[in-house]
Amino acid sequence: MHFLIRWLLNTIALLVVAYLMPSIQVDSIGAALVAALVLGLVNALIRPLLIILTLPVTLLTLGLFLLVINGLLFWAVGNFVTGFTVASFWAGFFGAILYSLISWALASILEPKLA
User: Fold this and answer.
1) Distant-in-sequence contacts of 68-71, Cβ < 8 A, 24+ apart
2) DSSP structural state of residue 7
3) For 28-77, how does the pLDDT look when each residue is reduced to its tens digit (9 = 90+)?
4) Which helix or strand (DSSP H or E) is residue 23 part of?
């Protein structure tokens, strides 16, 4: 049940990001559901591997390179999922930051009440 709630919250966050940023487009709610699921899988499976591979750069930049990794993964999912479009790397960079903030805010507001 927790997984479904988190997935729906991330879908809502993705729709809000698409509303706020004209360079990120979501064609339908179905596309947003798929994109949120793929973003979750990519962040769970591929992101840790990229963090390990880029550990020296991440340490050198005091962790700021993690923002680049998040932006690249957001942009890659935008190129991979049909109906979810991210115009450029910079759109993915700022979209990933906004997506994280909105997702965190929604989870912190709604999840304690659901538990």
Assistant:
1) 68/93, 70/96, 70/97, 70/100, 71/95, 71/96, 71/97
2) H
3) 999 999 999 999 999 999 999 999 999 999 999 999 999 999 999 999 99
4) none
DSSP 49-74: HHHHHTHHHHHHTTTTHHHHHHHHHH
If you count DSSP H runs as helices and E runs as strands, how many of each does the chain have, helices first? 5, 2
Write b or e for each residue in 41-53: b if 16 or more Cβ atoms lie within 10 A of its Cβ, otherwise e. ebbeeebeebeee
Contact (Cβ atoms closer than 8 angstroms) between residue 17 and residue 24 = yes
Instruction: Give the dihedral of Cα atoms 107, 31, 95, 22; nearest 10 deg.
Output: -130
The pLDDT tens digits for 68-103 are 999 999 999 999 999 999 999 999 999 999 999 999
Distance from chain centroid for Cα 33: 12
The amino acid sitting at 53 is L
